[in-house]
From TrEMBL:
Protein keywords: Ligase, Plasmid
Organism: Azospirillum lipoferum (strain 4B)
Residue stretches spanning the membrane: none
One function term, GO molecular function aspect: o-succinylbenzoate-CoA ligase activity
Enzyme class at the top of the EC tree: ligase
UniProt-recorded name of the protein: AMP dependent synthase and ligase
InterPro entries linked to this entry: AMP-bd_C_sf, AMP-dep_synth/lig_dom, ANL_N_sf
Keyword Ligase: yes
A Pfam family assignment: AMP-binding
Length: 214
């Protein structure tokens, strides 16, 4: 935030950890929304990037503090912040389902949700998120094995699990490697975390699976 050109820029990137420090103030202190916006450099049109897929609860708290001034972008190093986006006006929709999504595919990028065999899934079905386009990496340097695992038939397999709604908005469920399998069912830690975060006394939470003999 100390880079001089930010004073003259119309866009600012703010990581989740820094945004949280503005939203969660020390006990007994009230946030000054005007000063908070100045610190974020939210100059028209405002812009925000979340480094990690966040839960609807966190987005709601941010909106309650600063108002509908954010845009979110979902991406990863292999497709730099260009997979999907949730626009500023989408944040003002006052719908938890929409607010909890990461938006729709950005221009020049094709996004799909597929099953374990790489077949596209219909809206509402959870699968792995894949994408393709000119922005997608050509592979990992000097690592053909990792390249073959991530890039298949021109698609980048993100290892993120998600689903589309009927309007084309994508919602992240969890990382495929974090899914907990119990009794033949898939449990997504992110969904459990979102419920726990709704409690007023819970500031942060992390759900992990533990081996069970049964």
């Amino acid at each position: 935030m100390a880079i001089p050109w930010l004073d003259h820029s119309a866009y600012t990137v703010e990581e989740a950890s820094d945004l949280r420090r503005l939203v969660y103030n020390p006990p007994g202190k009230r946030i000054d929304r005007k000063k908070g916006r100045e610190r974020l450099r939210l100059i028209s049109p405002p812009f925000s990037i979340r480094r990690r897929p966040d839960v609807c609860v966190e987005a709601g708290r941010s909106l309650a503090t600063f108002g509908p001034v954010f845009a979110q972008i979902y991406g990863q190093g292999e497709a730099p912040m260009t997979i999907t986006s949730l626009r500023r006006r989408d944040h003002a929709a006052d719908a938890d389902a929409l607010l909890g999504s990461v938006g729709f595919a950005r221009s020049g990028v094709e996004v799909a949700v597929v099953d374990a065999d790489g077949r596209p899934l219909p809206p509402g079905e959870v699968g792995e998120i894949v994408c393709r386009g000119d922005v997608v990496t050509a592979g990992y340097w000097d690592n053909p094995r990792a390249t073959a695992e991530a890039l298949r038939d021109g698609w980048l397999y993100t290892c993120d699990m998600g689903s589309f709604d009927r309007h084309g908005y994508l919602t992240l469920r969890d990382r495929s490697k974090d899914v907990i399998i119990s009794g033949g069912s898939n449990i997504y830690p992110r969904e459990v975390e979102e419920v726990l975060l709704r409690h007023a006394d819970v500031a942060e939470v992390c759900v992990t699976g533990q081996p069970d003999p049964e």
